[in-house]
Amino acid sequence: MSANEIAIPFVYAGEVYAAAIVLPIVGIATIGLRLWLRSSGKARIGIDDWLALAALFPVIGMGLCLIYGTAKGAIGHASTPYPVPTNPPMLAELYETTPEQTIVFTMDWIIWVLMIPGNGLIKLSALFLYRRIFVVNKNSPFDIVTMVMIAICSLWTVGFFLAQIFGCGSNFGAPFGTLTDVASCNTNVRLDALMISDLITDILVWILPIPVVWGLNMSVSKKLSITGILSLAAMSLAAAIVRLIVQEQISNGGYAAHTDVNLTLTILLYWSMLESGLALIAACLPTLHYLVSRSFISPAVNSMRRLISSTRSTSTSNTLGERPYYEVSSTKLSDPTHGGDGPYELSRDMRKVSDVESGEGEWAHHGNKGL
Fold it and tell me: Where in the chain does DSSP place strands (E)?
C-alpha cells in the first residue's frame, strides 16, 4: 500500500541517496578543514574538535545504512505485498512482514543506535566550544550553565543509547519482527521521549551563547554576523521538528493499516539523517568562520595596512625632508633628537592601538584562547 495519511510527504530513493551521500561527504570535508586550519595556524586542537571528529563516524554510519537499505529496495520504496496474507488485509501489516520490511526495521534500529551518540557528541562539541570562547572566569554564570548542560547532554546520550539497546529487554529480535512485535517494546513511547528531549536540548544548546554575544563590547554588525552563524543551526532544528511531527502521528496510529510502512519509516530515517548531518556542519561553522578569517583575511588586511603605512611614510619623508623620527621598540621610544638613548614609555592608548593593528590586543588574545 502506498497511501499516506502522514502530514509530511513520502521520501523516495533519489532523495534518500542524496542525503546519505552528500551530508557525510560535506561532514568529512568540514571536519577535515577544521582540523587542518587548527594545525596550520598552530592552534591547539581541543576537546571540542575531538568530539566533533568522533560525531562524524555515527553520521557516516547512518549514511551507509540508508544507502544499503535503499539499494536493497527497502528504504525509499513502497512496501511489497505480503507473501502469505493469513490475516484480513487491514491487519496484515500488523502481523505479517516481508524481507524488505525486515531490512527497513533493521536499518531503523541501527540508525537510532548511531544517531543518539552522534547527536550527543555534536551537542557536547558545541558546549565545549562555547566554554573555550566565552568562559574566562571560573564559577561565572556562563561557566556554571555550560557545565550543567554538559552533564544533561551526557546523561541524555548514555540514557537513550542504553534504552535503545535494551528497550525490548532480553527479546532482542523484537525490533526486527512484525509491527506488533515492535509495539510490544513500547517503541513509540521511547521514540516520543527521545525526539522531544532531543529537540529541547538542541534549542537550549544553540541559543545558549547568543545572550553572551550580545553582551560583548563590539559593533552591532559583528554581533549580527556571529548570531547569524550560530543561527544556521536552525536548519537541523527544522529537520528535528519535521521528524517529531511524523513520530507523533505514528504514535497516534499513523503507520497502521492506512499508510505504507516502509515509506513512513523512510520519512523518519531521512529527516534524522538531515538533522544529524546539518547539526554536525553547523557545529563547525563558528570555528571555521574564525579560523578562515584569521588565517587568510586578517594577514591580507595587515599586509595592506603595512603597505599603506610604508607608502605614507615615504611620501612624508620626501615632502618634508629629514625630520626627527621615533623608533618603536617593544613599549619604548628612542628619540634621536635626545641622543637616541632617552626611553619614553608608550602610553596605554598607544599600546592598545599597536595591539589592535598587530592582532595582539585583548580581544584578539581572548579569541586565540577561545577558538
Answer: 327-329, 332-334, 343-345
Are the beta carbons of 246 and 211 closer than 8 angstroms? no
CB-based contacts of 93, cutoff 8 Å, min separation 6: 1, 79, 82, 179, 256, 257, 261
Can you read off the three cell numbers belonging to residue 151?
552533564
- Helix (H) and strand (E) counts for the chain? 14, 3
Q: Are 246 and 11 in contact (CB under 8 A)?
A: no
Query: What's the pLDDT band for 105 if we cut at 50, 70, 90?
Result: very high
- 100 Cβ contact list (under 8 Å, min separation 6): 72, 73, 74, 77, 79, 80, 262
Is the pTM for the entire model greater than 0.90? Answer: no
pLDDT digits (tens, 9 = 90+) for 299-354: 444 554 455 455 545 555 554 444 444 444 344 434 444 444 444 333 333 333 33
Distance CA 7, CA 249 (A): 8
- 25 vs 47: CA distance, rounded Å: 23
DSSP letter at 361? S
Three cell numbers, residue 295: 588565517
